[in-house]
């Protein structure tokens, strides 16, 4: 702590590697920080959680603004998990929890829950404001391996800054694979409690929102924007529940990609990691290791592209006057990993804004004829 009473310096000042970009990065952090606030939740007198949040919309006429944050703000953690590094928010969402928004001038104002999106683990809160708030600038073009900073705030509202890189890969034990992953510097060992905080680029633009600091995943801005547009038009943020999780061929080792192209004429697509037991995907014969080459005739190379397409299909669904929790058919082109043949099937999916739980089945690839992908 220095003579002003501040904590130790951030990574920008205690790491000589940042000397070439220190001035630029400092400007980027200070610009984005104007939009980052702290939120706290309570159940009666019992503290529940603290998360960061991001101003994303304001109405100067009604003197209100909306804060985007992680749904973990009002969700219980699983008390049965003793390992803090694997602790999951798997408990109940407390929609009626009291939530306070901590302004940077030390004011504390109650927030009202406007919308909760369980699958993306997002929550929107409306707050009364007596002066305009600073809205962030977004950048939808985030790439794997990009230099970024993750911002958060501690209980004193001081900034927490972590340097890292973005990646498409997520831990194999984390089921929702449409997120991107924040790879911290090896020197940054402390686990930061900054759910709801932004991931920013070197221009101070938001490229994503942290939705799980333990798994270190974030939602890319391209998906956030589609969710915002949907919510403004239809008052909800739906997606299609496919009953599957995937790994992108694009992010395999080049040796594996070349082998798949040479042996099976497969250059891109999504490898099925899990098929939910009892799902329609299981009923039409999709199994772990199969490759989904296209959805509705559109070839998809990453799970982010898939997620954007799923939201677009939901938009068409709502434009046709249809509602949430309805079934919809999607055409999928499948490469069978065991029989080594292609087929096209109609997959019945659910339009929902609830979280999608993948129930593990018992259908691993068996036999010598399975397609090697590793």
Briefly summarize what is shown.
17% of the residues lie in helices and 34% in strands.
CATH architecture of the largest domain: Beta Barrel
Low-confidence stretches: 1-6, 82-86, 170-177, 364-374
Mean pLDDT: 84
Strand content: 25-35%
* Strand elements, count: 19
Describe this structure in words.
The chain is globular, with a radius of gyration of 22 Å. Mean pLDDT is 84; it is low at 1-6, 82-86, 170-177 and 364-374. It has helices at 11-14, 22-33, 221-234, 254-264, 280-283, 303-319; strands spanning 36-43, 46-59, 64-70, 98-102, 108-117, 122-128, 147-153, 159-167, 180-184, 198-200, 206-212, 217-220, 239-241, 244-248, 270-275, 291-295, 298-299, 327-335, 342-352. It contains six helices and 19 strands. By secondary structure, it is α+β, with helices and mostly antiparallel strands. Strands 13, 14, 15, 16, 17, 18 and 19 form a seven-stranded antiparallel sheet that branches. A six-stranded antiparallel β-barrel has the order 1-2-3-6-5-4. Residues 271-310 form the PDZ domain. This is PDZ domain-containing protein.
């Amino acid at each position: 702590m220095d003579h002003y009473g501040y904590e130790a310096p951030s990574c920008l000042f205690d790491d000589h590697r940042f000397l070439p970009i220190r001035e630029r990065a400092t400007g980027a952090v200070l610009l984005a920080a104007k939009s980052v606030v702290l939120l706290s939740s309570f159940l009666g007198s019992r503290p529940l959680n603290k998360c960061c949040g991001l101003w994303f919309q304001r109405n100067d006429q009604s003197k209100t603004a909306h804060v985007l944050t992680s749904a973990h703000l009002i969700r219980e953690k699983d008390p049965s998990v003793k390992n803090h590094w694997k602790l999951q928010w798997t408990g109940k969402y407390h929609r009626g929890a009291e939530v306070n928004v901590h302004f940077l001038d030390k004011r504390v104002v109650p927030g009202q829950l406007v919308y909760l999106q369980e699958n993306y683990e997002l929550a929107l809160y409306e707050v009364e404001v007596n002066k305009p708030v600073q809205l962030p600038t977004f950048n939808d073009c985030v790439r794997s391996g990009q230099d970024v900073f993750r911002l958060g705030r501690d209980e004193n509202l001081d900034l927490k800054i972590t340097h890292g890189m973005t990646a498409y890969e997520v831990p194999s034990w984390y089921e929702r694979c449409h997120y991107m992953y924040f790879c911290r510097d090896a020197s940054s060992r402390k686990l930061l409690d900054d759910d709801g905080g932004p991931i920013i680029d070197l221009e101070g633009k938001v490229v994503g929102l942290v939705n799980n600091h333990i798994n270190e995943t974030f939602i890319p801005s391209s998906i956030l924007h589609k969710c915002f547009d949907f919510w403004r038009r239809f008052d909800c943020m739906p997606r299609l529940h496919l009953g599957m999780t995937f790994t992108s061929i694009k992010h395999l080792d080049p040796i594996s990609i070349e082998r798949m192209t040479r042996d099976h004429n497969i250059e891109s697509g999504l490898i099925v990691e899990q098929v939910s037991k009892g799902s329609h995907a299981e009923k039409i014969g999709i199994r772990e290791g199969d490759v989904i080459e296209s959805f509705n005739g559109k070839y998809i190379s990453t799970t982010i592209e898939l997620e954007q397409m799923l939201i677009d299909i939901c938009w068409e669904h709502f434009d046709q006057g249809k509602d949430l929790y309805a079934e919809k058919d999607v055409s999928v082109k499948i490469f069978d990993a065991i029989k080594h043949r292609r087929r096209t099937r109609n997959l019945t999916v659910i339009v929902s804004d609830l979280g999608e739980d993948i129930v593990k089945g018992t259908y691993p690839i068996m036999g010598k004829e399975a397609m090697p992908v590793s």
